[in-house]
């Protein structure tokens, strides 16, 4: 019944951990949307929906449903970029409308984090915006230049530390295979070093796949299944954050990892080593380049 009352402009994306969240699409598309590897929002022109429109949607949720809503996710690809005053108003309305609300989450690009001061982020956190999903993609500056991320690793690290000081939880993602064969080793090592420095609450691995990004695939030499496993193992061998939960439960992944640092570090490495050893016994598959169908994503 809720979803007949809430307007969505497809495609609509959310992190795996927001599967049970009620989604409000406060922005359409992504304010950055220049990353060459990412095809999620290429079909959309970015815009911010008016506060009045969003409030009407929030208030349209039936009274009988409201007590069951505990988590809300603010879409689209860059919810944090919503203007501060309007975002505060939306968060207040969410808390008032849903009495059992415990957490609001949103994607946050580096660009959107530049639009908020530490004090503004602190206020948002106090109003239950508790977790930001941040796409690092790679800690390697050359790879970030290649994909046109628009920010250097050190810049993104400073922005994420600002969010941490404001009390925000961060869920950071990086992409296996993003750098292709040429910079796979550098990508793995630099990404692990970046995560070690930040120690975000969550770190998630995705695997590079085709979706409105064929031009980028033409410029790199894509990794095979075996190459992706080797890159994952290299990253895990360098990874040693103070306190971070690792997940690789995105649909693009074929190596499933789950554990907490530092206690599960050796087990995670051993899991990747076993997967790599098994893959090497299947040379045809090991050397095959993944060719995912975009409609699955």
Automatic annotation (TrEMBL):
Residues 14-238 form the Radical SAM core domain. The keyword ATP-binding does not apply. It comes from the Bacteria. InterPro entries: BchE-like, Elp3/MiaA/NifB-like_rSAM, rSAM, rSAM_horseshoe, rSAM_sf. GO terms for molecular function: catalytic activity; iron-sulfur cluster binding; metal ion binding. Pfam families: Radical_SAM. Keywords: Iron, Iron-sulfur, Metal-binding, S-adenosyl-L-methionine. PROSITE patterns: PROKAR_LIPOPROTEIN (PS51257), RADICAL_SAM (PS51918). Gene3D superfamilies: tm_1862 like domain. Its cofactor is [4Fe-4S] cluster. PANTHER family: ANAEROBIC MAGNESIUM-PROTOPORPHYRIN IX MONOMETHYL ESTER CYCLASE-RELATED, RADICAL SAM SUPERFAMILY PROTEIN. This is Radical SAM protein.
